[in-house]
User: Fold this.
Amino acid sequence: MFFKVIVKNCTLIYYQRQRELSKLSKYGTLFTAGFSLFSISKSSIDTSSFMAEPVSSVEHLSKTKDDMKTKVELMILRVQSEFCKALEKEEESGTKFVVDKWQRKEGGGGITCIMQGGKVFEKAGVNISVISGMLPPAAIARMRSQGKKLNDGELPFFAAGVSSVIHPRNPLVPTIHFNYRYFEVRDGDTVHWWFGGGTDLTPYYLNAADAVHFHTVLKETLDKHDKQYYPKYKKWCDEYFYIPHRYETRGIGGIFFDDLDTPSQDKCFEFVSDCADAVKYSYIPLVQRHKYAKYSKQERDWQLLRRGRYVEFNLIYDRGTKFGLLTPGARYESILMSLPLKAKWEYMHQPGPDTPEGELLEVLRNPREWAVNP
Assistant:
């Protein structure tokens, strides 16, 4: 118990202080922006802080502020911008994100932000997409196999989300992935909607303090909405990010959920927004803690081997990747941005059980509980 208290005090003090500052900054920004908007036009939307202009027209967004599709698009634009700027602040080389805004002829588009070749981040991607059109039969069949009650034939849909994968250069800094999304399908007079997403951590070397910090931030965020969420979605994450042919998980987990449509649309939106906002508090302190650490060639080689596992999961098992590739007008460069710049495979590589590499594998084969209870 003493150890838990010490770990919690040491690893979460930065997060708690930053969280409070963020609240003040958030409300201060909202007040300033609100005053400015009122003085100019009640219908205008300030896009100056985004990485690029919204996918939908500002005029359309201004007229549909109460529509969930608009709320989600503005939220993911904000999350993308805030996370990109937080990562750029940690990058020592001065490397910035390259912004690639694209359109999809079938409807909608996206904004892909990529940073490559930095001293801290070897490859970092933070993407948003806002697309609409007709779901093809293959995509409908896959969704029906996952429990969705949809009729046959093409159906109009809307999908928006933010997705990010960060591959650091230093093997002592973990990789993080997060994705939060909203989906609508119109089936006759019925509109089906749901939210999904998650955040998970993939370290190359096990650091218990990092794991405790990461999971505790997530637990505290979810507990504000429902104390049953964290244990349920942590278990779901461990099961989802499992590589069957390797008998191991991709990383040390986090949270994962899909098909969320209760208790209400607005409550679901608030929950997903809080989850997305928690990413920087769960991850940036880990970058700051380890980005200057020295590492060996052996540790770098192990990192590249573990990245190979990352590639295997994403290309063989990940539902989001498969759905994206099935969507008409799919933008493959953005879908595959999750893949690392460099990876490695060695035939029958097996580290010893009493090595740091073996310690990580033990946890990947037997997931643990990390979050500190209050």
About this structure: DSSP finds eleven helices and nine strands in the chain. The longest strand covers residues 121-135. Residues 2-40 form the longest helix (39 residues).
